TrEMBL record:
Name recorded for this polypeptide: GMP synthase [glutamine-hydrolyzing]
EC number(s) per entry: 6.3.5.2
Species for this entry: Sphingomonas gilva
Residues represented out of the complete protein: 201 to 519 of 519
Gene name of the record: guaA
Pathway(s) annotated for this protein in UniProt: Purine metabolism; GMP biosynthesis; GMP from XMP (L-Gln route): step 1/1
Protein function: Catalyzes the synthesis of GMP from XMP.
Length: 319
């Protein structure tokens, strides 16, 4: 039986052995996995690590600032904050197919990393917070035939031209173990307990075309939903909760006027590893309160629906 303290020590030795005197860049997504990977690698090799936060403009409200301050101020780990919203949004113009979105975002991440690696005089290694379920799900569906459900942008290796080796210290771990490791490394409970957030960000929570305007609408609705979940003391009982902005307009009435605006979907699930999930059974009063707030406070949304699909057959994200 491994304790997390032993796992930490063993991984640190392994990272030192793999990396030697080489330079490593690590992509931060704002999530727990990449943060834990970065802190662990920093402990192993210190200044040989540079973190890159690719701010693709597809983050939730306030998230970019939280990541930057956690790393720069709290950990004092060198961090390149690359603001590249335009690059991502331009490239996503007209893209509606979920796999095409994922592939574009994955490829563009790599392009940005490559440019950052050049700036620090080249890096031999790329670190990622890939978990065991990411590895499994991008290869085959558990227990079923070998089909790709979704191409996770952080799995599947690197383009040949990149010529970098991967450092993936969390590849054998499940999410709850990564959280334990994070605690072991001294990350705050609030950070470690954060809900998972996918690398492609809000792009896969906006079925249809992704635009700056739609990202802004979704950010507002999502913030209200999460705010109500926190106020109700439900955040830690839920594996993941988020809003989705649908490419469907419906008719409504507000005041004495007709509205014709987008539908917002709400999702909340319980899970232990993200591979299967159950719908979180909010009471009707809670959902009504959230729906009312979203429609009243977010311009562009006039109807809210709740997703009652478990995984399988649904996936947690909508794309
Ligand atoms: P699905 O939607 O496949 O998601 O049921 C399972 C878990 O994985 C997260 N997810 C991702 N995480 N890159 C990530 O880092 C991705 O491309 C990606 N796609 C899904 C999802 O949020 C859920 O926690």
């Amino acid at each position: 039986d491994w304790t997390m303290a032993e796992f930490r020590a063993a991984k640190i030795a392994e990272i030192r052995e793999q990396v030697g005197k080489g330079r490593v860049i690590c992509g931060l997504s704002g999530g727990v996995d990449s943060a834990v990977a970065a802190v662990l690698i920093h402990e192993a090799i210190g200044e040989q690590l540079t973190c890159v936060f690719v701010d693709h403009g597809l983050m939730r409200a306030g998230e970019a600032d939280q990541v930057v301050s956690l790393f720069r101020n709290h950990y004092n780990i060198p961090l390149a904050h690359v603001a590249c919203e335009t690059l991502f949004l331009e490239g996503l113009k007209g893209v509606t197919d979920p796999e095409a979105k994922r592939k574009f975002i994955g490829k563009t991440f790599i392009d940005v990393f490559e440019a950052e690696a050049k700036k620090i005089g080249g890096a031999e290694f790329l670190a990622q917070g890939t978990l065991y379920p990411d590895v499994i799900e991008s290869v085959s569906f558990t227990g079923g035939p070998s089909v790709t459900i979704k191409s996770h942008h952080n799995v599947g290796g690197l383009p040949e031209r990149m010529n970098m080796k991967l450092v993936e210290p969390l590849r054998e771990l499940f999410k709850d173990e990564v959280r334990d490791l994070g605690r072991e490394l001294g990350l705050s409970e609030a950070f470690v307990g954060r809900h998972p957030f996918p690398g492609p960000g809000l792009a896969i929570r906006i079925p249809g075309e992704v635009t700056k305007e739609r990202c802004d609408i979704l950010r507002k609705a999502d913030a209200i939903y999460l705010d109500e979940i926190r106020n109700a003391g439900l955040y830690d009982a839920i594996w993941q909760a988020f809003a989705v902005l649908l490419p469907v307009k419906t008719v409504g009435v507000m005041g004495d006027g007709r509205t014709y605006d987008s539908v917002c979907g709400l999702r909340a699930v319980t899970s232990t590893d993200g591979m299967t999930a159950d719908v979180y059974p909010f009471d009707a009063g809670f959902l009504t309160r959230v729906a009312t707030r979203i429609v009243n406070e977010v311009k562009g949304i006039n109807r809210v629906v709740y997703d009652y699909t478990s995984k399988p057959p649904g996936t947690i994200e909508w794309e």
